[in-house]
Amino acid sequence: MGLVFRLIAGACVATVLTQGIVIGACLVRGTLNTQSLTQIIALMNGIDITGQRLRLAMSRGDSAEQPDFDEILDARTRKSLDMDLRLDAQRRYSRELEEKLASLHAEQERFDLRREEFFQKLDEVRSGVQTEGMQELTRTLQALAPEQAKDQLLRMMDDGRIEDVVNIVQATPLDKRTDILAEFVSEEESKQLEEILRRIGEGEPATSLIDRAGR
């Protein structure tokens, strides 16, 4: 640590001695004044107050090649052209996107229409099949003996097909219907017959269909 202090002290003494020698030379030559003294101190501390570095930087800047007006105008023209090209590309992309969206929307509408037509046709086919099946079932029950027909109707009611039972009873000729309904003799069967007749009196099954359509 003492060696470090001695080195620092030596450097300071050398600096002071150098400054003294320079100042003494200026005194001998008679050039010592406030300006020269300031410059000596500044230079000893690494500061250039003479402007030499500034003049050097300015001279280097003056010697550098400067673009002329035509070059500047040409550069600005190219920049403006590039901007116009980018804007045109963006507008073109926007138009293409709008056209694709419009085409997709039209295609979606056509698909929805075809799908609606398909399901409508499917409902018609299903309704027709069900109608034909019910007609065939009605003809089959009418061909059975009254007691057998009653048993089949009761089974259908147990399966929750009360509307089908009402349809069959309504479609059965009056004389055949009377024979079948006369077989409902037990107390439980009488209650079921009462339910069938009640529904017929209320306009079933058309009323149920109208109610479901209203929902």
How would you characterize the overall build of this protein?
The protein is 84% helix and 0% strand. It is rod-shaped and about 130 Å long. Residues 206-215 have low confidence and may be disordered. The protein is built from nine helices and no strands. Among the domains are: 2-51; 144-214. α5 (146-158) packs across α7 and α6 (162-171) crosses α8 (187-201). It has helices at residues 2-29, 34-44, 52-63, 69-143, 146-158, 162-171, 174-181, 187-201, 206-214. The chain starts with a helix and ends with a helix. The chain is mainly alpha-helical and 215 residues long.
Draw up the topology in text.
Elements (H helix, E strand, L loop, with lengths): L1 H28 L4 H11 L7 H12 L5 H75 L2 H13 L3 H10 L2 H8 L5 H15 L4 H9 L1
Helix pairs in contact: 1-2, 4-6, 5-7, 6-8
Organism: Roseimaritima ulvae
Protein name: MgtE intracellular N domain protein
Features:
mainly alpha, rod-shaped, disordered C terminus, MgtE intracellular N domain protein
Number of helices: 9
- Beginning-to-end CA distance, first to last residue: 102 Å
Q: Give the overall form.
A: rod-shaped
If you average the pLDDT, what whole number results?
A: 69
Please write the string of helix (H) and strand (E) elements: HHHHHHHHH
Name the beta content range.
under 5%
Total beta strand runs: 0
Please give the radius of gyration in angstroms.
57 Å
Helix content: over 70%
Biggest sheet details: none
pLDDT < 50 stretches: 206-215
Protein name: MgtE intracellular N domain protein
